[in-house]
Records
---
Amino acid sequence: MEQDIERVLYSEEALRERLQELGRDISRDYAGKEPVFIGVLKGSFVFMADLVRQVTIPCSLDFMAVSSYGAGTTSTGAVKIGKDLSENIEGRHVIIVEDILDSGNTLSYLMDYLGAHKPASLAIVTLFDKPSRRTKPVYPRYTGFTIEDEFIVGYGLDYAEKYRNLPYVGVLRRVIYSE
Ligand code: IMP
Ligand code: MG
């Protein structure tokens, strides 16, 4: 796996430090609100696990599985639900947890979908944002890191289902996805 990575973008240490800040901000902003975190599978599973352990207020968790990508590196535009909510979110303060915001297709769909369930509030925390690629208007309340238009993997993020288990985030060598 290591030889497929062009360079490390965020080390385990850098990720840990940023997550401490995010957890502190969310805990402060949602004090007394008992938010529900909705992780967008599969990419957010590592981020979600580490983030909620930095949250110091009562909260609950749920997951959805959606896909907008095939095996490639560009979005097809269509969003498909693989796993729906298991809790009722009406009247709840919902925080969507996403690995990376790219075109905005996935999150703009989810904002509409979850908004229709009448939550008390709806916000997004995304670990990475690639604003230069945006085609839909999506505004995260919390962003871990804003990055250039490069394809990254690790810490939950995949290319064709691989590299999710890398403990750091790296830029994938271009030859891997252009061959
Ligand atoms: P969007 O719907 O185009 O915003 O894409 C969001 C989804 O695309 C993310 O949840 C990821 O699964 C995937 N994605 C976008 N950019 C990257 C990347 O650089 N590495 C890995 N997955 C990515
Ligand atoms: Mg993916």
Note: The pocket of magnesium ion (ligand 2) is lined by residues 43, 69, 158 (CB under 6 Å).
---
Amino acid sequence: MNILNIITVPDPLLKTVSVPVTVVDDELRAFMDDMLTTMYAAPGIGLAAIQVGRPIRVLVMDIADEDAEKKPQYFINPEVTWTSDELTTFNEGCLSVPDQYADIDRPAECKLTYLDYHGNPQNVHATGLFATCIQHEIDHLNGIVFIDYLSSLKKTIAIRKVKKLIKED
Ligand code: ZN
């Protein structure tokens, strides 16, 4: 398994609207395995394909506690079919915006449909951290990064800090 390169803001690729997957095959599964390896190495709890430069509607996630057993989840062509009126605020971060965090409001719960690792249709009712994380990741598939919800001043500052951080690396 390979660790892939994670792109960071302001890379214009992050604004791409990703295209649906048409075939779930071994090549795609190998790519999702690489995405998961990359996410664990970062470390992070969610990663969208566009964050490693591939504009397809694929996400990997693992929101299990750090010391608990790993619980990888794969979402192909995820689609939100319902969101709760109730909102929740979570201090979000993103592997494409390293070391920057901000409070973001999102629906507290959502329902979604998707294809699993084997290409089988699934649906799930997400709550808590799962709901927040999956909405954050689906945003990536639509070209949205969480700092897009901030004021333009806060967003500019975050991007400037990331650029500085990357340069120092
Ligand atoms: Zn992200």
Note: The radius of gyration is 15 Å.
